[in-house]
Amino acid sequence: MRIHTGEKPFECDVCKRSFSLNSNLTTHIKTHIGENPFKCDMCDRRFSRNYNLNTHMRIHTGEKPFKCDVCKRGFSGNSDLTRHMRIHTSEKPFKCDICEQGFSQSGNLTTHMKIHTGENPFKCDMCDRRFSRNHDLTRHMRIHTGEKSFKCDICKQGFITNGDITTPMSIHTDE
């Protein structure tokens, strides 16, 4: 019943991830202690469960047996298809207890919660600024490196973020 209600009373002491079944927590803990007996022969990655190894093997074989009924896109795992379907349904089952914002993936809620807790584990080595997401730190680092990965298709001017392109594009298109 916990699976259907979303109740997850079993929490990992290391990373605070929660599970509906104690057996899933037990398996998860193995990832922290390095107990991963199932090894991929192609890339040497290791897994705590044989099921995860079998799903992983589809990366190497290209097999995508789980198909979206809406857009026909294929996925290697059923959980990937379930996550994908939320694009079509706009379902956001993961709700913030503080501000009630909804998310389609639990990891996005976990990241969001750092806003409320003030947790910023990703630190810039050059200026000591801190970020709640590694992605934000990576984008910030472009300020220090001068990397301008995003180019205007019209004038070829470089920009640090994709969002920075919108202003020159509006000049080029008279918007």
What does this structure look like?
This protein is α+β, with helices and mostly antiparallel strands and 175 residues long. It folds into three domains: 1-62, Double Stranded RNA Binding Domain, CATH 3.30.160.60; 64-117, Double Stranded RNA Binding Domain, CATH 3.30.160.60; 122-173, Classic Zinc Finger (Double Stranded RNA Binding Domain). 41% of the residues lie in helices and 14% in strands. The protein contains seven helices and twelve strands. It has helices at 2-5, 22-33, 50-61, 78-89, 106-117, 134-145, 166-173, and strands at residues 10-11, 18-19, 38-39, 46-47, 66-67, 74-75, 94-95, 102-103, 122-123, 130-131, 150-151, 158-159. The strands form six sheets. A two-stranded antiparallel sheet has the order 1-2. Strands 3-4 form a two-stranded antiparallel sheet. A hairpin with a 6-residue loop joins β3 and β4. The chain is globular. The N and C termini lie far apart (54 Å). The model has no long low-confidence stretch (mean pLDDT 85).
At a glance:
GO terms for molecular function: DNA-binding transcription factor activity, RNA polymerase II-specific; RNA polymerase II cis-regulatory region sequence-specific DNA binding; zinc ion binding. By secondary structure, the protein is an alpha+beta fold.
